[in-house]
Amino acid sequence: MFIKTTLTAAAALFALSGAAFAHATLEQTEAAIGATTKVTLRVPHGCSGEATNAVRIEIPEGFYAVKPMPKAGWEVSTESGAYETPYNNHGREMTEGVRAVTWSGGDLPDDFYDEFTIRGAVGPQLAAGEALYFPAVQTCANVTADWTDTSGSRDVPNPAPSLMLVSTDGGHGHGHAHGHGDAAMQADTTVTLGDLEIAAPFARATLPNQPVAGGFMTVTNTGETDDTLISASSAAAGRMEVHEMAMDGDVMRMRELEDGLPIPAGETVTLEPGGYHVMFMDLSAPLSEGDSAEVTLTFEKAGEVTVTMPIVTRDAGGAAHDHGGH
Ligand SMILES: [Cu+2]
């Protein structure tokens, strides 16, 4: 019994590896969630010996903002449709887009190999470890070769080309980072939220019984729409406010920006000691050097993002009496 099973498995493995060699597959094996990526379909042969005249790829739900790469000798066309989930693409809501791409009018003999490429973005709602399938069909003069089985089974003759979703490591991906704490803890702490890039966040350590502290960063608006930092919050503070330092007569005072801090299109706004800052009020415990504070920033247009502010020594970046007014 044991021997028979082993032989059967070996025979199946041999048959599959032979078949797998001939499948249409993707050059890419992985794609990062939230990233823009290229997907290249590899066509290793025709349909039962006939030359391939057209190749159609279906775009899976979750892969959006798709553009096909034109190809000499082939006409490219797209089919559009609604997305199940709308996407925020640089501040604009996308509710529909390309759902299939067809290259036609070509002639790819059975003995030749070719590649067909699209580019798109991997939706932030997708989960790492899942496969994303791109069903493909080759059309020849009399028959087709279908690569459309999305069951994930390796035992089928016509598996759909797929790639594996992985999570982004750095938080720098193009456009859709969510401000994970562990990403921000790394040396380069830039976090991207839509058109906004939030860099170099930090807060300063407090003395015992000091109820307030300043938080700082730079915010760059790479888009074409003005935005506003309207509020901040943190588990480290009872509440937070958005402040500016300004001269009142000959005295420097801080005050709350009731309407928020404007982040104009195309500009970088620096929150720094002696200038704009987010203010930790009603601290539940002193901020200690070497620790960090998670701060959630809310922007009028771009929405919310959480950044991790390393807590540095009181003397860093300016005089410690900046917040003496409280
Ligand atoms: Cu303040």
Automatic annotation (TrEMBL):
Extent of the signal sequence: 1-22
Keywords tagged on the record: Signal
Superkingdom of the source species: Bacteria
UniProt entry tagged with the keyword Transport: no
YncI copper-binding domain location: 23-165
Protein known as: YncI copper-binding domain-containing protein
Organism of origin: Roseivivax halotolerans
